[in-house]
Amino acid sequence: MNIGVAITITFVIIALVAPLLREWGLIQNPLQSLSNPINHPPNGKYWFGTNAQGYDVFSRTIFGTQAAIEVVICATILSIVVGVPLGLISGYLGGRMDRVILFLMDTIYTLPGLLLSVTLAFVVGRGILNAAIALSISYIPQYYRVVRNQTTSVKTELYVEAAKAMGASTARIVYKHIFLNVVQNIPVLFTLNAADAILILGGLGFLGLGLPEDVPEWGHDLKLALDGLPTGVWWSALFPGLAMTTLVTGLSLLGEGLSEKLNPHEGD
Asked: What is the pTM of this model?
């Protein structure tokens, strides 16, 4: 878990300081084509080299971190804001509404995340918020299912029945006696979904459906790197791909560590 925390924090710090590094002139403008040199290998001036379009790979990798963090945080927060309340209400009240919402969520859950995101990206268009919306739809059912299943179990506990007998309102019961007892798995889902969202965002960028071209993004940079690969320009694909892989690994390790901490007897 410590490794996952260190990797995740490092990337978050990079995302936060990226604009300052550019303002202080410590890195190149990621949107400015240098024209000369093109396909220059890594060296003292261009640490990660330049790509076939003349962009500095290092600066684009740094600013790609910022774009990835922004989109993933927005997507996962949107998923939580929609999925958790739906799970609480559906699980606690039950009835026909529960069956309808469950059917809808199960239908969305069966669709491949990348395919669903690609379809939604066509509808909502490109942009950070639009990409976050396209990604979040895939994760809402996961929060819904986890929270609903735990809610249906917790609502039959004696302390919930006692709260009802004492005249507590539905809102108070749902928040104080149910939500606070089912919330422990949300941080785990958050980190694992964030890792998955990084990969899907990269896929959208590679297909040209993610962020606008004036926003550096790892998937889009991998697409740009295709022009140089036949001539041996390996660095333009290596560093964005390595950044994406490292962040996904860090988030996955963090999620596994949180799962062990929050559910220590799950594997017993």
From this structure: 0.89
**Burial readout 72-101 (b: 16 or more C-beta within 10 A, e: otherwise):** bbbbbebbbebbbebbbbbbbeeeeebeeb
Alpha-carbon gap, residue 230 to 237, rounded angstroms: 12
**Cα(18)–Cα(21) distance, rounded to whole angstroms?**
5
Question: Which whole-number Å values give the CA distances from 121 to 17, 83, 111, 124, in the listed order?
Answer: 29, 20, 15, 5
> What residues does each domain of the chain span?
2-262
Please report, as a single letter, which amino acid is at residue 211. L
pLDDT at residue 266, as a whole number: 54
Give the pLDDT of residue 122: 87
- Per the model's pLDDT, the better-predicted residue between 205 and 125 turns out to be 205
Look up residue 190 and give its two tokens.
Answer: 């958050």
How is residue 35 written in tokens?
A: 């024209």
Report in angstroms the alpha-carbon separations of 41 from 17, 27, 118, 224, 241. Answer: 25, 17, 34, 16, 17
Please choose, from the candidates 124, 142, 143, 144, the residue with its C-alpha nearest in 3D space to the C-alpha of residue 133.
124
List the structure tokens of 27: 């890195």
Mean pLDDT over 49-72 rounds to: 93
For residues 201 and 210, the answer to whether their CB atoms sit within 8 Å is yes
**Backbone CA torsion sign across 217, 223, 225, 227:** negative
pLDDT, mean over the chain? 89
Angular region, 95: left φ>0, alpha ψ -120 to 50, beta rest: left
Architecture of domain 2-262: Orthogonal Bundle (1.10)
